[in-house]
């Protein structure tokens, strides 16, 4: 089951769109797309989420977020 509403969770990243047991879904680089980051385990996913998705400063270090920030800066 995909969890979709980041406002109901402690997610800092504005590009976060949902998650499953071993993956995190983010906004895509093109309209109608999404980016899915798959992890080897739910523990690895949880660690990444704590360092990046749930961290107000950490999400800016995520390569997906960096690409999306550049996308909006170029528009």
The radius of gyration computed from the alpha-carbon positions, rounded to a whole number of angstroms, is 12 Å
Helicity level, as a percent range? 25-40%
* SSE succession: EEEHH
Low-pLDDT segments: none
- The percentage of residues in β strands lies in 15-25%
Q: What is the strand arrangement across the widest sheet?
A: 1-2-3
Q: Number of helical segments?
A: 2
**Backbone shape:** globular
| Number of DSSP-assigned strands | 3
Largest sheet: 3 strands, antiparallel
Instruction: Indicate the mean pLDDT.
Output: 89
**End-to-end gap:** 34 Å
Provide the structure class. alpha+beta
Give a brief description.
The chain is α+β, with helices and mostly antiparallel strands and 75 residues long.
Describe this structure in words.
The protein has 75 residues and is α+β, with helices and mostly antiparallel strands. It has a 3-stranded antiparallel sheet, with helices on one face. It starts with 15 loop residues before the first strand and ends with a helix. It is built from 2 helices and 3 strands, in the order E-E-E-H-H.
């Amino acid at each position: 089951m995909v969890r979709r509403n980041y406002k109901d969770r402690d997610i800092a990243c504005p590009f976060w769109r949902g998650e499953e047991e071993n993956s995190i879904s983010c906004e895509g680089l093109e309209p109608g797309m999404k980016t899915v980051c798959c992890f080897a385990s739910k523990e690895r996913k949880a660690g990444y989420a704590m360092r990046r998705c749930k961290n107000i400063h950490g999400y800016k270090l995520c390569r997906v977020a960096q690409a999306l920030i550049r996308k909006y800066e170029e528009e």
